[in-house]
Every structure is written in structure tokens, then in C-alpha cells.
Write a structure and sequence with these properties.
mainly alpha; 69 residues; P-loop_NTPase; kinase; elongated
């Protein structure tokens, strides 16, 4: 089934997904891209110096982590 045609999604459409860490944004993006034949583009988080600290101690680092992207 061609979902783009079914829902009248233009060829040049851009879908943006936002949400907090760990809610499934990447999974949803990949699933939608596959279903709709879209290309994906993900935010590069490798440069974030707080990423490892955030995952090690969510409560301590969650506030500062959100402001480093």
C-alpha cells in the first residue's frame, strides 16, 4: 500500500519529530521513513559532553543536558 498516496503526502514533505530523551523518536522516525519512503536526518549528539553523564545519572544531569544541544 502506498501510504503517501493514501494520505496525499507531497513528495517534498518534511516531517519533524521532537520529544524528550528516550521516548522513541528515532524508532518512530525510522518506522515512518520506511513506511513512507522518506530519507532520515538525525541530530548529531556525539559532541555533547554530558551524554554519558546523563545516562549514568539521569536526575543529576537531565537539566543541564537539555541545554547543550
Amino acid at each position: 500500500m502506498n501510504l503517501r498516496a493514501k494520505y496525499n503526502i507531497p513528495e517534498n514533505a518534511i516531517i519533524t519529530i521532537a520529544g524528550t530523551v528516550g521516548v522513541g523518536k528515532s524508532t518512530m522516525t525510522k518506522t515512518l521513513a520506511k513506511a513512507l519512503g522518506f530519507q532520515t536526518s538525525f541530530e548529531n549528539v556525539d559532541h555533547n559532553p554530558y551524554l554519558d553523564k546523563f545516562y549514568a545519572d539521569f536526575e543529576r544531569w537531565s537539566f543541564i543536558f537539555k541545554f547543550t544541544f
